[in-house]
Amino acid sequence: MKLIYSTVLAMAFAAPAFADSHSMGDADAGEKQFGKCKACHAIVDDAGEVIQRGGKVGPNLYNLVGRQAGSVEDFKYGKSIVEAGEGGLVWDQASLAEYLEDPTDFLRTTLDDSKARSKMSFKLRKGTEDVAAYLASVSPGAEGMEEAPKSE
Q1: What is the model's pTM?
Q2: Residue 91, SS3?
Q3: At CA 115, angle to CA 69 and CA 61, rounded to 5?
Q4: Distance between CA 79 and CA 108 in Å, rounded?
Q5: For the CA atoms of the chain, what is the radius of gyration?
Q6: How many domains does the structure of the chain reveal?
Q7: Which of 24, 52, 79, 107 has the fewest C-beta atoms lying within 10 Å of its C-beta?
Q8: 66 with 140: CB under 8 angstroms?
Q9: What distance lies between CA 61 and its chain's CA centroid?
Q10: Which three-class secondary structure state does DSSP give residue 16?
Q11: Residue 3: inside a domain, yes or no?
């Protein structure tokens, strides 16, 4: 019985520290970090207003958070990201931050397929949570999408 109480007590004290260490990032810092993404991506809203000028090699990242992965109309995605989206992957801040760190590894884990590949070869080593928070800030459909429930 003492073990159970000790475990519950330890979890109660650890929970706030865990939550703080896993916050979803700083959108202002992410906007600055987005400069690394501009070579391939732009952010243009539905009315055509340019929020971030950038390349067209990658899809428009407006309203990304809350959207099914691999689903921008008229963009030619790689097979793996489309498969992940069709399998239920909807971008939330947590999954997006993980993807930005290592896109191919993320897809291999998500699809449980060691041969899965991402067409996005860039890996953002620092600030992934900040960039994800920034992208959520330019995603009007993302309210309450800090972390979506995992699909089965």
Answers
A1: 0.78
A2: coil
A3: 20
A4: 12
A5: 17
A6: 1
A7: 79
A8: no
A9: 11
A10: helix
A11: no
Of 106, 99, 120, nearest in space to 55 by CA: 120
Domain assignment of residue 12, yes or no: no
Walk along the chain (152 residues) and give the pLDDT tens digit of each residue. Answer: 544 444 334 444 444 433 333 457 999 999 999 999 999 999 999 999 999 999 999 999 999 999 999 999 999 999 999 999 999 999 999 999 999 999 999 999 999 999 999 999 999 999 999 999 999 999 997 765 554 444 43
Q: Is residue 152 part of a domain?
A: no
User: Residue 99 and residue 80: Cα distance in Å, rounded?
Assistant: 13
Look up tokens 């990304």; give the residue: 64
- The answer to the question of residue 129 being in a domain is yes
* Residues 65 and 145 sit within 8 Å (Cβ to Cβ): yes
Burial class (CB in 10 A: 0-12, 13-18, 19+), 22: exposed
Cα–Cα nearest to 130, from 3, 29, 13, 10: 29
| Residue-range definition of the domain harbouring residue 77 | 25-142
**Range list of H helices, 22-69:** 27-33
